[in-house]
Amino acid sequence: MPQWIVSLSYLLSSALFIFGLKRLSHPRTAVRGNLLGAVGMLIAVVVTLLDRRILSYEAILAGLVVGSAVGALLAVKIHMTAMPQMVALLNGFGGAASALVAGAALYEAQGVPGAMTGQFTVATAASGLIGGVTFWGSLVAFAKLQELITGNAVVFRGQHLLNGAVFAISLALGAWLVLRPEQTGTYWLLAGVASVLGVLATIPIGGADMPVVISLLNSYSGLAAAATGFVLNNNMLIIAGSLVGASGIILTRIMCQAMNRSLANVLFGGFGAQPVTAATADSVYAGKVKAASAEEVAMLLETARRVVIVPGYGMAVSQAQHAVQSLANLLKARGTEVLYGIHPVAGRMPGHMNVLLAEADVPYEDLKEMDEINPLLKQTDVAIVIGANDVVNPLARTDPKSPIAGMPIIDVDQARTVVVIKRSLSPGFAGIPNPLFAAPNTLMLFADGKKAINEIIRSLQEAGVAA
Description:
Layout: H1 3-23, H2 27-51, H3 58-77, H4 83-109, H5 118-145, H6 159-179, H7 185-202, H8 210-232, H9 235-258, H10 263-268, H11 281-285, H12 294-302, E1 306-311, H13 313-318, H14 321-333, E2 337-342, H15 352-359, E3 367-369, H16 370-373, E4 382-386, H17 395-398, E5 417-422, E6 442-446, H18 449-466
Parallel strand pairs: 1-2, 1-4, 2-3, 4-5, 5-6
Helix pairs in contact: 1-2, 1-9, 4-5, 4-8, 5-6, 5-7, 5-8, 6-7, 8-9, 12-18, 14-18
């Protein structure tokens, strides 16, 4: 295939990737953006296969069939609540693929005159290091999210020193590989040490920081792919990996800003390692919590002119998104304005709540980001918090010693009445009590999210029939 066709095809794919990423920034255009990116990748893959003059496509076709079957099965079987785990695995396997391809290229280059260039060896070392960290770090993130291991931060004495030592060993092995690329065993030793580093770097990160970790690992997988692009001297892989790496780090920064924390604090702070005891649950809740029934909440909603729903991970666990949308439709039919307040780090991955609500066909214009919804809450009759905790905790504003101090929150406490749907008074990932639950204008509806919403709907319908 003429080189100009390859270059032009790669340019077209790159443009499709960029336009696709742009459209992914808004829910209304996200599906179209995803399709643009898929078309761009299809063009890049087809052109690469034709350009390389592969003599036998049997193994490639077998991999395509197996991979497509696994992908289709996962797409059907994986629940939306498990999507964060799925994203973590995809990040990990992307990093592993990059490391394996770079290792294979290193073997292939042995004895080939002029193949061991500086670019080749440095990129190979980078791919092995980043790929190993990404794969095993993602597996730990998956295990935490799937509750195969504790979701709390796992810390121990001398942890940072050990991590620093393992990182230094990784760099030393990478430098040795650059100097002696003919010693291929060094590459696999590098990948092994990087794997240990991936585990050690991820276990001290608590579940509350999973949105940041997932977006950071996504960036790592892109960097590993870009490094492998330099190994293979493939411009398309370099561009695609760079876009993924850049978008991942930008999203990571946005997540950190949403929590008012630095990336260093997320990675090394051990957030959630142990409960904070500055204010005990007894001192915050004793004699102040007011429980309510679904019928009482329905009475409030009957006269409400504006209702704001703030979803959290509890909504995902109970799979209540469809019930929430049914409640919203019922209220709208009565003339009530219904909006959704979305916190950037609500759930277990960036955009988790947006994805769940989109699955339930919630209109895009009803989804309001934190900065949009907060000014409206003072004129809100009822704010319904379903399964959220830390992202609505007023201690972020009032207690400078709190682990969430300074974190921007959704100001539901400023609404006329707050209804919190939660199984119990258990703390969020920050491990601290939430004074919102004991506020004078708060009613607690203790129940499974989906069950509670359905009971409220039944009460509203019965009231409508009686009227």
